[in-house]
Design goal:
- One of its GO terms (molecular function) is peptide deformylase activity.
- Its EC number is 3.5.1.88.
- By secondary structure, this protein is of the alpha+beta class.
- The chain has a single domain, classed as Peptide Deformylase, CATH 3.90.45.10.
- The protein is built from three helices and seven strands.
- The strands form two sheets. Strands 1-2-3-6-7 form a five-stranded antiparallel sheet. The chain has a two-stranded antiparallel sheet with strand order 4-5.
- The protein starts with 23 loop residues before the first helix and ends with a helix.
- The model has no long low-confidence stretch (mean pLDDT 96).
């Protein structure tokens, strides 16, 4: 099974490379990412979080009962936000920044162009929770973590908590 790398691993700061080959190796990586995302109770995961610096991510938003269904899984390759509007403040967490949650401002509505696992070009419109998940995961592909978006005082609080946990 794939392992999730965590902050402060410097690999998380890498800018991921565009996917050019849509082959069985990519499909196996996407399947492995799905397994680890579910095991870790995540709603999204990017390839860089499992130490693969390519522009690939998964999102699977839970239903009203908190269940995730494979048919709701979005496999997103080479995403690009082509439209955004509005603002939403959302309490975010991250598999690569475990046990830390904080409010982050994001665009409320976005449109994303991307490719699926076979290289087909697609577009999707997302709002609210799904829009936040997209922006969070696309940030990963650009070497940005949600903690980077925090105001300085909240960022210092995070660094202090991290130091405290390392001492335990």
């Amino acid at each position: 099974m794939l392992e999730v790398i965590t902050y402060p691993n410097t690999m998380l700061r890498q800018i991921s490379k565009k996917v050019e080959v849509f082959d069985e190796a990519l499909h196996e990586l996407l399947d492995g990412m799905y397994e680890v995302m579910l095991k870790k109770n995540g709603v999204g995961i990017s390839a860089i979080q499992v130490a693969r610096p390519i522009r690939a991510l998964l999102i699977c938003i839970p239903d009203e009962e908190g269940m995730q269904h494979k048919e709701d899984l979005l496999e997103i390759i080479n995403p690009e936000i082509i439209q955004n509007e509005g603002e939403i403040c959302f309490n975010e967490g991250c598999l690569s920044v475990p046990e830390f949650y904080e409010d982050v401002k994001r665009s409320k509505n976005i449109k994303v162009s991307y490719q699926d696992r076979y290289g087909n070009h697609k577009e999707i419109e997302a709002s609210d929770y799904l829009a936040v998940a997209f922006q969070h995961e696309i940030d990963h592909l650009n070497g940005v973590l949600f903690i980077d978006k925090l105001p300085i005082l909240k960022r210092k609080k995070f660094e202090k908590e991290l130091k405290r946990k390392k001492k335990l």
